[in-house]
Amino acid sequence: MWFDKHNPHAVYMDIRRETCACSRDRGRARTIVVDPDILGDFTAIPFPDESFRVVVFDPPHLETKTQCNITKHYGTLTGDWRSMLRAGFAECFRVLRPGGVLIFKWSEYQFPVREILALTPVAPLFGHRSGKQSTTHWLTFMKD
Known about the structure:
Layout: E1 13-14, E2 18-21, E3 31-34, E4 38-39, E5 52-57, H1 69-74, H2 81-95, E6 96-107, H3 113-117, E7 126-130, E8 136-142
Parallel strand pairs: 1-4, 5-6
Antiparallel strand pairs: 2-3, 6-8, 7-8
């Protein structure tokens, strides 16, 4: 997603910091590096209210833990993950300035986006489907 992870306008936060080997991709071994600027949980973002003009929320979207490359990139949903995502949406809106934009990414591989959108009272303004089967949704919200 990041064109420049070192752009001074961007802060990358993840709950993990790790490096792991992946299965082969087109005959080549790959390594996934998760190296955020800030270690943190999206249910308790360590910034004051109204800190950002733009927030990108790209949470885990798979409940089943496998050794696939996707779960190594994004982690997995665990426990009461619906409450966790609800809290994540609330935190994203909390740290957004009025008029700020939230970009939300979700893959419908296991759960339809309509179930996830039920976890936030804010409706998206617009979105886009992508991926081989058009199961990844990019949704745009704006904070009033």
